[in-house]
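lol ok so funny story. i was supposed to be doing the assay writeup but got distracted and ended up predicting the structure for this chain instead. priorities right. anyway since i did it might as well share w the group, maybe its usefull for someone
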Amino acid sequence: MSWMNIFEGVPLVAILRGLTPAEAEPIGAVLLEAGFRCLEVPLNSPQPLESIAILQRRFGDRALIGAGTVLNAQAVTEVADAGGRIIISPNTNVEVIRATKARGLISFPAFYTPSEAFAALDAGADALKLFPAEVAGLAMLKALRAVLPADAKVFPVGGVDPASMAAYRAAGAAGFGIGSSLYAPGRSPVEVGARAMALVRGYKESAA
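and the output, tada:
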């Protein structure tokens, strides 16, 4: 099965910056209930490896669990040892991409320029994160889709909301990463669950 199949029609990545281990299970539960199937714990969160391990133990059979803000190969090793399966970065670092693939993990680096996009793909990236999407814009994505391989998956991240999803999808987006509009420290599982359901509903309606 392709790793993309786990998204089950909802290719949205939950970016859980600031998540604590105590929150991991209740927040993960409401996200999966809403339809999310990829949960990212950025490594600048409190005790991120512990949160990743908790999420993987509890939800790893139904979701892709991994880390964001992965900046070096040593961090890849630490995430892999914690059970993480997907490595997401805010930049294009070919050493991180190669280390990720060497561990058999999914590589999801960010890019901003065409040169970075092609360097990431050449290094073995499984998908690409257009970041920051609110700065790059729809025109950038549309132009990139004209030159990138047809099977390259591009996920805009940054400033995406249900109102903008349809336009991004029309420009060639394969999915989205969702951060502060979904989760922020201090939000209850009930609120995060409601936001998650609204985002999933918005994504499905953007295909209409």
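The first strand starts at residue 12 and ends at 15. The mean pLDDT is 95.
back to the writeup now i swear
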